[in-house]
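Readers of this paper often ask what the protein records in our data store actually look like. Nothing more is needed to write down the fold, since each code stands for a local backbone conformation. Below, we set out a record of this kind in full and without editing:
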Amino acid sequence: MNPHLDALQAYPFERLAALTSGIETMAPTRNVPLEIGEPKHAPPDFVVEALRDARVLGSGLAAYPPTRGGESLRAAVSEWLARRYGARVDAERQILPVNGTREALFSFGQAILSGSGSARVLLPNPFYQIYEGAAVLRGATPWYIPCAPDGTPDFDCIDDSVWRTAELVYICSPGNPTGAVIPEDELRRLIERSDRFDFVIASDECYSEIYRDESVPPVGLLQAAAAMGNTGFRRCVAFNSLSKRSNLPGLRSGFAVGDADIIERFYLYRTYHGCAMPAHVQAASALAWGDEAHVRANRARYREKFEVTHPILCEAMDVDMPEASFYLWPRTPLDDETFARKLYETENITVMPGSYLGRWHQGVNAGAHRIRIALVSDLGTCADAVRRIRNFALALH
């Protein structure tokens, strides 16, 4: 067995299940799950119809799909990137379809990292645990980047000695769980460091299309690279998917895009990995990337939920309005594990303890004394749940 498996930590949802195991809730209402970022809005009708089309299904089921993906999907992604970020990419050499960003972010680490015991992988703290697993299972050492006061990674606190041993840096913008967006000038400085210290940047941008201000979409890694003259996106690879943007988590459809040389090596890895996207999924995905109307409507629904729930929660807890994503990230009046457990017991509402999404590093866990609330259910359910969380928190004072 791979000896690095023993170094993996339990996934946050496993820890949460153990935390609430055996508890008899006192609430008469059914459970409200706010712990997982699984979109509940309806998927676009035109995508569902495409998947029902027997011709679309039949055209791809009799042949193995290409690992590099079909031309129509890569063209649709390329055109979306141009519209969204002004990024001009070579659809043949710089884009790879992937089966959701989760598998790609993990496998990217396996393909990119050298296997050296001295290698470090830098990741934000708190973070999506896939980044850590990718580092650990390749024998690299995770190094947790502290949070700045605005919720973004504090790159300036990292010594040059750490940068010199970095082979891969994961970033997530908009962030999970903070909802914070890394500003363009910070992305540029990170790209400059990647040139100076020779590491690869993997930018998880799966929340990029859920943001508060319709006139100010979050900047992306490739957008920042192109703006500073790095039009080949040297050492930069971005990842995005249809899961959050289009409410299609079950489609398992996304892409990796960036530095052509890195993409080519990643492609070589993936030919052995056996992860080609089925043709009917490609066809439906191309349609989704080509339409923005459903994305704007989706964004408006999340915006309405934030406008309703944030003021309610502010009456009892310290919570910022996030720039993007669909999470609230409030501070808790007692430790986050106890808060989550007692909330479940009292109200039958499940939230994620923030400390499960972070690690203790240099004496700090940026998730401690916080909870993550995923506003993925309908407006009425979210509003009612947040009122009950407010009342629960007020009773603790």
